[in-house]
Design a protein that fits this description.
The complex is a heterodimer of chains A (160) and B (431). Chain A is α+β, with helices and mostly antiparallel strands and 160 residues long. Chain A contains 3 helices and 6 strands, in the order ααββαββββ. The radius of gyration of chain A is 16 Å and the shape is globular. Chain B starts with 5 loop residues before the first helix and ends with a helix. By secondary structure, chain B is an alpha+beta fold. Chain B is 27% helix and 26% strand. Chain B has 2 domains: 104 residues, Rieske [2Fe-2S] iron-sulphur domain (Rieske Iron-sulfur Protein, 3-layer Sandwich); 264 residues, Naphthalene 1,2-dioxygenase Alpha Subunit, Chain A, domain 1. The chains are: A alpha+beta (160), B alpha+beta (431). Chains A and B meet through strand 2 and helix 3 of A and strand 14, strand 22, helix 11 and helix 12 of B.
Chain lengths: 160, 431
Amino acid sequence: MPGLDREPFELFLIHEARLLDARRFRNWRDLFTEDGYYWVPAAPDQESPEDAASLFYDDRELMQTRIDRLEHPRIHVQTPPSRTVRLVSNVTVEAADEARGEYTVVSNMMMAEYRLDRQRLFAGRQTHALVRAGDGFRIRWKRVDLINCDSAFEAMAVPI
Amino acid sequence: MFDGTPDEISGLVRPGQVHRRVYTDSDIFELELARLFGRAWVYVGHESQVPKPGDFITTEIGRQPVIVVRGGDGAIRVLLNRCAHRGAKLTSEPRGHADRLTCLYHGWAYDLDGALAAVPVPEGCAAGFDRARFGLAAAAKVGAYRGFVFASLSAEAPALDDHLGQMKANIDDLIDRAPDSAIALDAGMHRYVYRGNWKLQVENVLDSYHVPFSHASTVNRKGEQFSRREGDRTGAKVVAQKKTSDAWKGRRSYVTGPGHGWTSNTALDDGKRSSPSFDAYRKTLADKVGAARAEEILTPQYHNSMIYPNMSIMGLNMHVRVIKPLAADLTEVTIYPVRLLGAPDEFNSRNIRLLNVTHSAASFVQTDDLEAFRRAQEGLQSQQSDWVDISRGLGEERPDTKYNAVGELATHEMAVRAQYQAWVEYMGRTG
């Protein structure tokens, strides 16, 4: 969007990525609004999470169940845990409603994940629907379209 | 060198034991592709995936690529995905629609029944070239039961009806839940891959012993798993006083036919099960089949079913699972959410959403199984012992007249032993 300073949006996405890399999952969850959701489709151009399978489609309640498990001492698929680093780039604000404080932000992401002598790479385009909250933002929804979303994956434990 | 003589095959399986080589040896894996996947009825797809003439999906029987295609006559055929000319695959798409199957290489074109319809530059064909001899090869046998399509590459396979036997009741249990008495596998899919042998997944499907341990991270402080089925207030009671709960220990497993089996239903909220979408579904079903029959259908008897060697149905988070061996130490699995035709969209949607968190590659449940499969494959490299123990409950198997099967406690290992009995029968035949 012309005339809109994209830096606050970029800094917010970087902040979110750092929380996930630091495994501060509860803080990450708190970025979402109470009715917020997190969606990673399992097919390219998937229209809805309601009528087809998704890799992730968590509302706050499922997010909490996921985080409880990630913090459980006997989550075998995270013993030892993954180490991740996320890059966020090509950030643009695609839509803005300044009066309501609502923004749609599109960016490219990459996540390198290392665990048990193996490293793998996830790459995709992510869309954040943000709403202004005080000095920052909260996430109304986040969608990550991985370029290989319909491939067969080895186990994934941490959110993208 | 392993030649796969009947003696060598039967020597790999003892009462309550199986040799570690069946998981790790690439010679044995090649023999499995030829003798087991080359002979058995293999699940290849569901009719709802090819609803119209010209619709096709592609898959493999063992390693052999096939096209499951609905012809202009409405019949479903299973054609080898290999041009009869120089052998190129006719399509690499997982699914699609075509009036003809045309090879990208030299343009040979086939009708949907596999007949060679056209050859470019026909005047160059050798004298005596007979188009009728160059159709696509087809699976020797194709059959379907209530929409599930199976194929065998062996003309000597028994009738599908006999092969499925008692497992038809498992399929009925799922499909009868649909108010329209039909299901569709058209709600996308989950795909995962693991660095382990295919039989680790096949064994795991009917293994109730591992749940409190492998899936500890899904169990809350009250010993209950998170709710996995729409309308239940909680999930299954798995743990009590830090041990496997009596409710869980009471689960049963059954085996029948060549390697097939199932585990009994998990005790959940049946009777009290309720939510807006479940209640709407129950009413829709009752309006179709009557209240008494609806209650009978909604008291499922089957939890997990295995139709050996490559297909499984789960009745709890309703899905169909297809297991594809890629190498001795590499396996791919596809999970299709089941959509009950005639049920309210919201109810089907809840099943799809719960399946995301139980069986996607990023789920809470399946991922710990994948970790177990990977570690088993690595551990089995150890030569400390050549034998894997599968003896729990050995000698306690009893015929069950209600189900016309053999029954045992599901935390025992009867189902694994039955799978290896079938494995020896398929693998031990050399002809």
